[in-house]
Amino acid sequence: MALNDFDLVLFGGSGDLAMRKLLPAMYSRDVCNDLPPTARIICVGRHEWSQDEFLHSVEKNSKPHLKAVDQAAWAKFIQRIVYVSLNATDASTYAPLVEALRDDASLTRVYYLATPPHLFAKICDNLAATGLATANSRVVLEKPLGRDLASAKQINAEVGKVFSESQIFRIDHYLGKETVQNLLALRFGNILFEPLWRREWISDVQITIAEKIGVGNRMGYYDTSGALRDMLQNHLLQLLCIVAMEPPTSIAPDAVRDAKLQVLRSLKRFTPTTLAQNIVRGQYRAGHVDGAAVPSYRDEPDAPAQSRTETFVAIKAEIDTWRWAGVPFYLRTGKRMHDRLAEIVVRFKPIPHSIFNQPNNSFQPNSLVIRLQPDEGLRMNLMAKTPGDGMRLKQAELELDFKEQFKAPRMEAYERLLLDVLRGQLTLFMRGDELEAAWDWVEPILNHWEHEDSMPIPYTSGTWGPAASSALIGRDGLQWREEALPED
Ligand SMILES: NC(=O)C1=CN([C@@H]2O[C@H](COP(=O)(O)OP(=O)(O)OC[C@H]3O[C@@H](n4cnc5c(N)ncnc54)[C@H](OP(=O)(O)O)[C@@H]3O)[C@@H](O)[C@H]2O)C=CC1
Ligand SMILES: O=C1O[C@H](COP(=O)(O)O)[C@@H](O)[C@H](O)[C@H]1O
């Protein structure tokens, strides 16, 4: 579907996210001829750069992040960029933006708020005050969308005074990843799995997002956030929703979002006992990642010496529905881990009876591994006969490597999500009530950590996190999938 002509306004257009992700994503779409010839990108910041100075900064800070550079295409792309300097909190400085925008109701207008979240409400107010919150406008909100339930509600309420829900695009870039949509295809484009997708056949689900990187230059933000707010409240819970939701009636935004909301509202709430038993938080200490020495979290630039911020979290969650009662969902995420890995592992129940002359524990239960990163693919583990004489069964793999199977070029998450915003397609964006339900579930954990004296458990960088994380899943007789690899 061809895009309508648009003005895309990037508040925070001079910031890290715009330079590393958003402008490169728009360039990639331009190279693929997805952007209308006259579409423009208006980058907003406070700094008083001239147009040339700003383009110089784009050349220096954004161009190195392109997947591939075609000089002619790049030269054409940067002609779309207009830089506007204003103070987002002061409506009296918005005149240059009013001037830069085309006053044409047939165009699509998008305000992408890639700024600190405390500016969201003020920017929306100021857009309204300056007559810029027009009916043809959409607003995109970057994470973090609040730091607890109250602040998330406040953002929803304030932004909701200016824009209707159908104009609000709350980004969770994990929903833009190819494999996440493939999970929808797997579950609802095949007859095979849905009858088995329930507690009678599935024993447990693991969802891991492990990173090798540390906090980088985002300490100011990260130390006030931590892994629970930064990754679990949003990305991990969204993945859990896609795995666990009931079949939506269609791919329409509210059909999918209603189904995800139902999952979030069915998550079993933690009690004082389960808070202590089912959650592990850790913080990395000095170690080696890929052979290179890395410092402790507390020794990273700008880190508070006594920081109690968690860089790792593992949780055993449960969903109180007929479909999922009694099936544990183990979620974990961490920085400075052994590997960069994002995957979902669905383990099925063991066979009820062995007809083979082989010990029962030599039968691995079937499992389905949905890999998001580093390589995208699906793997089904099955028991198969080993070739030759006799009847010996061994685990074998059916593998679907998306890159091999489909030669079509890949699209980064931000490319897909930006296209969806420009098309007005809301399916891959969180609705306000989903956001609040997710905060509502994690809030007791935040409160518990705030009020207890304990510190996050230290783990050595380059491992799979604290040993307590293995114990959490080990209590149920299970292992994280990479347990064979080094641990603290
Ligand atoms: N960087 C990342 O990888 C990710 C970032 N995010 C989120 O995106 C948002 C932006 O992050 P990031 O790009 O890293 O932040 P940066 O600090 O790099 O950039 C912030 C941007 O906001 C602008 N800005 C700040 N205050 C004002 C103001 N009063 N008026 C106008 N512009 C203002 C800055 O312009 P100037 O410098 O000229 O003041 C700058 O362009 C944050 O909410 C962050 O959490 C989310 C996911 C990943
Ligand atoms: O939202 C965030 O995500 C990144 C990880 O994203 P990925 O696509 O590279 O897996 C994480 O590093 C960052 O802390 C967090 O804010």
TrEMBL record:
Where does the record place the catalytic residues? 235
The record's EC number reads 1.1.1.49
- Which molecular-function annotations from GO does this UniProt entry contain? glucose-6-phosphate dehydrogenase activity; NADP binding
Q: Does this entry carry the keyword NADP?
A: yes
Q: Where is substrate bound in this sequence?
A: 173, 177, 211, 230, 335
A single Pfam family it belongs to is G6PD_N
Q: Name the reaction it catalyses.
A: D-glucose 6-phosphate + NADP(+) = 6-phospho-D-glucono-1,5-lactone + NADPH + H(+)
Q: What does this protein do?
A: Catalyzes the oxidation of glucose 6-phosphate to 6-phosphogluconolactone.
Q: Where is the Glucose-6-phosphate dehydrogenase C-terminal domain?
A: 184-481
Keywords from the named record: Carbohydrate metabolism, Glucose metabolism, NADP, Oxidoreductase
Hey, which pathway is this one from? Answer: Carbohydrate degradation; pentose phosphate pathway; D-ribulose 5-phosphate from D-glucose 6-phosphate (oxidative stage): step 1/3
Q: Indicate what this protein is called per its UniProt record.
A: Glucose-6-phosphate 1-dehydrogenase
Residues involved in NADP(+) binding:
46, 143
Family as reported in the entry's similarity comment: Belongs to the glucose-6-phosphate dehydrogenase family.
Domain Glucose-6-phosphate dehydrogenase NAD-binding residue range list: 9-182
Give the organism, scientific name.
Answer: Massilia cavernae
Q: Which GO terms describe its cellular component?
A: cytosol
Gene encoding the protein: zwf
Any GO BP: pentose-phosphate shunt, oxidative branch
